[in-house]
Design goal:
By secondary structure, the chain is mostly helical. It has two domains: about 35-235, M75 peptidase, HXXE motif (A middle domain of Talin 1), CATH 1.20.1420.20; about 245-385, Up-down Bundle (A middle domain of Talin 1), CATH 1.20.1420. It has 19 helices and four strands. The protein has helices at about 1-10, 25-70, 75-90, 100-105, 105-110, 120-125, 130-135, 140-145, 155-160, 185-210, 215-220, 230-235, 250-275, 280-285, 295-310, 320-325, 330-345, 350-355, 360-385; strands at about 15, 20-25, 160-165, 170-175. The chain has a two-stranded antiparallel sheet. Helix 3 (about 75-90) packs antiparallel against helix 9 (about 155-160), helix 8 crosses helix 10 and helix 15 (about 295-310) runs antiparallel to helix 17. The two termini are about 25 Å apart.
Amino acid sequence: MALCAACVTGLVACEKKGGSEVISEKEQALQRVMTPYVDHTVVATYSSMADEGLTLVSQCRQILTAIDSARDYSSTLASAGETWRAMRKYWEQSEAFLYGPAATHTIDPHIDSWPLDFNSMNAMLHNEEQMKQIEEEGGAYVGEKLGYALKGFHACEYLLFESVIKEGRAVGTGKPHPANLTHAEAVYLLGIVEDLAQQAILLEYCWAGEVSEKKQAVLDEAEVEIFEDRYGHQMINAGKAGSIYVSYQEAAEEIIAGCVDIAGEVAELKMGNPYISSTPDERDYIESPYSCTSTIDFADNIRSIQNAYCGAQSGDACISDYVKSVDKDVDAQVRTAIDEAIKAIEQIEDFENTAKENPLVKNAIDKVQELEEVLDNEVMALLAK
């Protein structure tokens, strides 16, 4: 009776034929979206991010070894900065799917909180006992014992890229950090990237349900708590026993809600706060101030929406296909809004130093908000029908 009630209300959108359950055409269309979305958009992005994380760990180990043996490591430091940029790119292109494991296991704030707590950082670097613990325990100590403002992408960024002091604030140049790191800083850097790589692998594991032997060994060695989410399986099997989704419509709505959320964050917070810049906290809200890649981050956030809506690989079934089949004008609006938002963001130069009341920033904010509105109002409404 409960199943029949669900079919009548459209939650499962099914009917019975010859004693077997047959889902509606709408559910079939949205079902086709889920496997490529999970495999080619989510898991592929996290897997590549984790791969870059492991490379970064290797490079930072080389930096520490070079410092301890008084060898030049400037080229390795520069290469580590480029690896950080690559890893960061995959992370920013994942932010349309911050729901699920990134949220429930607090991985998002764990690896991507800012601004840094410089006072605590300096105190830690001069605390011999604490630094000894970090050297012995590495990423495990960083992950478990340090606060969000002392780990993740931005703590790593600060140590990999050059900054100069202006008006009492550290201002990034986007250039590689000079090869003058102390032993303590190199130990701290290695601990940060070990934890960062572990969290990236954990994201891949939570969505895919498995990772390569090499990545599994990293989790095992670090004794990272494993979560058996199998989140991708939940989406692919929406409406079936054991899935948290009662229908493919609900899963599709989750995907679009993730897109709406990151569009709002980019417009109102990531660009909006520095644009207003009326308080010290807002001035320090620049997302990537040392690598000077903030606008790259923002554009990649919109590309994460593009991948979620249009599919990450050509020919993939995607939500755009369904929307177009119902209302081709709405689909065209979304695609145009995505393109215009990316274009507007990429027109901004030197965001880190020119964001306040910059008309190009305001234009980009407007374009991202237009994208947010069409997703939230038009696409969500079509999915709900």
